[in-house]
Specification:
The chain is 37% helix and 20% strand. It is built from nine helices and nine strands. A six-stranded antiparallel beta sheet has the order 1-7-4-9-3-2. A three-stranded antiparallel beta sheet has the order 6-5-8, with no helix packed on it. The chain is globular, with a radius of gyration of 18 Å. The chain has a single domain, classed as Jelly Rolls, CATH 2.60.120.620.
């Protein structure tokens, strides 16, 4: 495991991503799939217009709106399981903290195009984006519920700014569109049981098809400038005191709770 952790860390630092194939057993995936599907069906019913018109993801999966307390605890235990924490600690060794969960699916409108982006572009202007990709770290851990086309990413873009082609397409400048192909893109197909770990700030896009349903766990480095991400965390997505007692290893959540209490 120590050797694997070093390899994961090296790949993440250099390329901004890594994949672990068949990391979870069929039994582990069946239990996760049951909870995720329950959430997804209830969310779609409650957001039918949004789902049919433009949605491609949902968030706050660990919240109380669509899941029972038992389901929430099961998700918290999956997120903070030894398998997941081995990965998280290999990438963020100091103070990893829980941020959010998201569920990515195919748009109801089959003509809806995917798009290249960095997550930070939705909160920061260009100059701040350049700073953020160097100063802070948010990590996605994607667990596909079913086999899917996966992701397309630009390796190494988590530590460098866009080249001219990337910038024009991502920002839709100079008559370019964000769904156009990038010469620097690399496709990463995924199967149920895999884990795909990638930097939220690298240039990336999801690939639609095969009725994808991908469960993403977002964690951040809570040291230094990274502490700002505690403000993004919805309180309802965190375990309460009763749930904390039922979580085998609550450290990931306690780190977030501590930051929010200090704010």
């Amino acid at each position: 495991m120590v050797l694997e952790s070093r390899q994961w860390k090296q790949s993440y630092d250099e390329q901004g991503f890594f994949v672990i194939n068949q990391y979870f057993t069929s039994t582990e995936m069946a239990a996760l799939r049951e909870v995720i599907l329950r959430f997804h069906e209830r969310w779609k019913e409650d957001n039918i217009t949004f789902y049919q018109e433009e949605a491609f993801n949902s968030s706050l999966i660990t919240g109380s709106q669509y899941l029972t307390t038992e389901d929430q605890i099961n998700l918290f235990n999956f997120i903070s399981s030894n398998k997941m924490m081995n990965i998280i600690n290999s990438v963020i060794s100091s103070m990893p903290a829980f941020m959010n969960t998201q569920l990515f699916f195919d748009p109801f409108n089959k003509q809806q195009a995917n798009f290249w982006h960095r997550d930070c572009q939705y909160d920061y202007d260009i100059e701040d984006q350049k700073r953020i990709i160097q100063a802070t770290q948010v990590v996605h851990l994607r667990v596909p519920i079913f086999d899917e086309p996966g992701m397309e990413i630009v390796p190494g873009s988590h530590k460098r700014w866009d080249n001219e082609e990337e910038y024009n397409i991502r920002q839709e400048e100079n008559n370019r569109l964000s769904h156009e192909p990038l010469s620097t893109g690399q496709k990463i197909p995924l199967n149920a049981g895999d884990v795909f770990v990638f930097s939220a700030d690298m240039i990336h896009r999801g690939l639609y098809g095969l009725d994808r349903l991908a469960f993403d766990i977002l964690v951040f480095d809570a040291t230094g400038d990274g502490a700002i991400y505690a403000d993004y965390v919805d309180d309802d997505c965190l375990p309460d005191n009763m749930m904390l007692k039922a979580i085998n290893n609550p450290t990931l959540f306690l780190n977030t709770i501590r930051l929010k209490n200090e704010a």
